[in-house]
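Example 5.3 — Nucleoside-diphosphate-sugar epimerase
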Amino acid sequence: MVFGLGYSMTRLARRLRDLGWQVAGTTRDPDRLAQLRAEGFDAHAFGPDRPLDPALLAGTTHLVQSISPEESGDPAVPALAETLKALPELRWVGYLSTPAVYGDRDGAWIDETAAPAPGSPRGWKRLEAERAWFAAFQDTGVPVQVFRLAGIYGPGRSAFDQLRRGRARRIDKPGQVFNRIHVDDIGSVLLASMRRPRAGAVYNVADGHPSSPNDPIEYACQLLGIDPPPLVPFEDSGLSPLGREFYAECKRLTVDRIRDELGVTLTYPGYRDGLDAIRAQEQA
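Solution (predicted structure tokens):
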């Protein structure tokens, strides 16, 4: 069961289905609901004004929560916590979080032992949701794992798509770096964790090559044979509040734990690998 069958989790759901799993999930978008059902998924409406029938959770063995917290907190806890804890076959829970829980680290390398220090309301909401999921299953024997996902990209959601839609921007903020993660490597990490669950585990899910936000745009332009968009000073960028929040934090995530504990070798260990594969797929 996936709370939030969006871009990333739909790609995982397809992999699971190909492996013989039965996959159910939720969305709050009526159009998305119809698309998911047309694709053969057992999809259901779930949102602030659309409660989920607890009976739909029967038989769940693995659960992923990928929905962002609401103002009031995580949308599934406490609404469904008691139902989830009572599921007799449940044996793995994964919560998808964000590196925003670490706050700004001035470009330092950060592993999962670093104490969270959110610097934004979004980061605090995510940290509270992480803690809510751990607390909900405390003393139940069901292992809960948290996955802090770096900037997600992949087919249909990459620098190529930003450029084609005229939304790619190069912002001049020296020293700004962050990690990314290809959407299919997220799925590989979750599958590996399902095979090796560890209660209370926290994983950075990211590539091993943090770099400037401009680098993927420039590399995508190189592959497309076009000039990159002009460099805009940060002070003149006119970023949205969310964009400014993003640029207010700078950190480099280590990814040793997904390799050492889960045995994961990323298919796309850097943005160049991912963009090369996307471009090759487009040209095939």
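Remark. The radius of gyration is 19 Å.
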